[in-house]
Design brief:
Layout (H helix, E strand, L loop, with lengths): L4 H10 L4 H10 L1 H12 L8 H6 L6 E7 L4 E5 H17 L7 E5 L4 H12 L3 E5 L5 H8 L6 E4 L2 E4 L2 E4 L1 H11 L4 E4 L21 E6 L9 E5 H16 L6 E4 L6 H7 L7 E6 L9 H9 L3 E5 H10 L3 H4 L7 E5 L5 H11 L4 E4 L1 E3 L4 E5 L13 E2 L7
Parallel strand pairs: 1-12, 3-4, 3-5, 5-8, 11-12, 11-13, 13-14, 14-15
Antiparallel strand pairs: 1-2, 6-7, 9-10, 16-17, 17-18
Helix pairs in contact: 2-3, 3-9, 5-6, 7-8, 12-14
C-alpha cells in the first residue's frame, strides 16, 4: 500500500492524530483548512479557468481510456486531450460561444464528452449534459430551461446488445428548443488541432455546471454549481478521502446524466488517468467491468450499491477470475450499501481492498459522508463526514 502524505500532512498541520479531531479542526477553523486544501492541491488564488486547472498536468501519459460493451477501446494521452480541446475551443469561439453561454450534450461517457466540456468551460461557458437514453421529453425538460447556444448529441449508441439512433429524438428536441440553438453530431466534429488554448479566467463564483433534480415533482430543477466551489470540494475529496495519486487510474461506472460524471472528470486535476465506460454493466456477461479493472490496472473503482447487490446475486466472484493486484479501493454510492455487500466485497472481490461507502448529492455535486484512510472500515457503516463539512 502506498504512503498517504496528503492526509498525514494535514494531520500534522492541524496538530491532531485522529480523523475525528481532524474533521473538527476542518470545521472549526474552516478558513485555515481551505487554505491548506488550496495549497496541497496547488489551486490558484483569484481568477482562474476550470479547464486550465484540469489540463495543467496533461502530458504524454494516459489521460482518458474509453471502453464499451462491444470490446472497443480508445486511449487519449494528455497531449491528445489538449489538442482536441484546443481545436474545439476555437471551433466554439468561431460560433460565438463566450462567457455565460450554455452548452449542452446528450452524450455517452466518452473522451469526446470530456473534451467538449473542457472546450466549453475554457471559454467561460456553462456545461450541462444528460445520457442519450433519456426520452425526448426528459432531454427537453432539462435543456429547454437553459436556452443553450450549442447542442451536442451522439447520432447512435449501443446498450445491452441493442442499437439506438437519435436522429428522430433530437429532431423533436430541437423543435421544442426553438430558434437560437444549433445541433451538432459528436461523431462529425473536427478532430482538433495543434496550438494553445485561450482560456477565459473568471472568479470562483462564475457558473460552471448545471445539474438537475430528478424531476419526480414537476419539471427537473436547475442546480447551478460554481467553478471555484466545485473544484475545491471535489479535489479535496480526491486528495484527502480517495487518496488519488498522479498517474493512478480512476474509474466510476456512470453516465453523463449523473453527478458522478462531473465528480469523475475532476480527477484530471490530480493527474489521474480516467477510465470511461459506456454500456450495460452485465453485458455481455457479469465480468465486463472486472475485465476493465484488471486490464486497465484500475486503482480506484466506483460502483453503485445496487450493482454490487446484483453482482452478488449473480454468483460472480471477481477475485477468483481476475488479477486485481493494483485495485486498492472500491467506492460505492447511489443508495446505502447493505451489510451483506460489505461481506461480499471482502470475500469475493479482494480481502484487503478499502471499501468506501459514500453519500452526497446533486445539490452539492460531491459528498456529505465518505471514506478516509485513517481508520478501519466497519461493516454496514460509512466512515465519517467529509472534511470541512459540518454534517449533523
Amino acid at each position: 500500500m502506498k504512503e498517504r502524505p496528503h492526509i498525514e500532512a494535514l494531520l500534522a498541520e492541524a496538530g491532531v492524530s485522529r480523523y475525528e479531531e481532524l474533521h473538527a479542526w476542518s470545521v472549526e477553523r474552516s478558513e485555515e483548512f481551505w487554505r491548506a486544501v488550496r495549497r496541497y492541491a496547488e489551486l490558484p488564488e483569484g481568477e482562474f479557468n476550470f479547464a486550465e486547472v484540469l489540463l495543467r498536468r496533461a502530458g504524454e501519459g494516459v489521460a482518458l481510456v474509453y471502453r464499451d460493451e462491444s470490446g472497443a477501446r480508445r486511449e487519449w494521452s494528455g497531449v491528445e486531450l489538449r489538442r482536441r480541446v484546443a481545436g474545439w475551443s476555437r471551433w466554439m469561439r468561431a460560433r460565438g460561444v463566450g462567457r455565460g453561454d450554455r452548452i449542452v450534450a446528450a452524450a455517452t461517457n466518452s473522451p469526446e464528452a470530456v473534451g467538449l466540456m473542457l472546450a466549453a468551460v475554457s471559454l467561460g461557458a456553462v456545461w450541462s449534459s444528460c445520457s442519450p437514453d433519456f426520452g425526448e421529453g426528459g432531454i427537453t425538460d432539462r435543456f429547454a430551461q437553459l436556452a443553450p447556444k450549442l447542442v451536442f448529441a451522439v447520432r447512435e449508441y449501443g446498450f445491452a446488445g441493442k442499437h439506438y439512433r437519435l436522429e428522430e429524438k433530437m429532431a423533436g428536441v430541437m423543435r421544442r428548443l426553438g430558434p437560437g440553438a444549433e445541433l451538432h453530431w459528436i461523431e462529425e466534429l473536427p478532430e482538433g488541432e495543434e496550438g494553445g488554448i485561450d482560456y477565459v479566467r473568471q472568479s470562483g463564483e462564475a457558473p460552471l455546471f448545471i445539474l438537475f433534480s430528478s424531476g419526480t415533482t414537476g419539471l427537473p430543477k436547475c442546480i447551478v454549481h460554481s467553478s471555484g466551489g466545485t473544484l475545491a470540494q471535489i479535489v479535496k475529496e480526491h486528495l484527502f478521502h480517495v487518496d488519488l495519486r498522479e498517474g493512478e487510474k480512476l474509474f466510476y461506472y456512470t453516465t453523463c446524466g449523473w453527478m458522478m460524471w462531473n465528480w469523475l472528470v475532476v480527477g484530471l486535476a490530480s493527474g489521474a488517468g480516467l477510465v470511461l465506460y459506456h454500456g450495460s454493466p452485465f453485458y455481455p456477461d457479469a465480468g465486463v467491468l472486472w475485465r476493465l479493472v484488471e486490464e486497465e490496472g484500475v486503482e480506484h473503482c466506483g460502483l453503485s450499491a445496487k450493482y454490487l447487490a446484483l453482482l452478488e446475486k449473480s454468483g460472480y466472484r471477481p477475485g477468483e477470475r481476475h488479477e486485481l493486484g493494483r485495485l486498492r479501493q472500491v467506492l460505492s454510492t447511489g443508495s446505502p450499501l447493505l451489510e451483506g455487500s460489505f461481506d461480499y466485497v471482502c470475500e469475493a472481490v479482494k480481502e484487503d481492498v478499502q471499501l468506501a461507502s459514500i453519500s452526497g448529492g446533486t445539490d452539492i455535486v460531491s459528498c456529505f459522508v465518505l471514506g478516509h484512510w485513517l481508520g478501519r472500515v466497519r461493516r454496514g457503516e460509512m466512515m465519517g463526514p467529509g472534511l470541512g463539512m459540518d454534517v449533523q
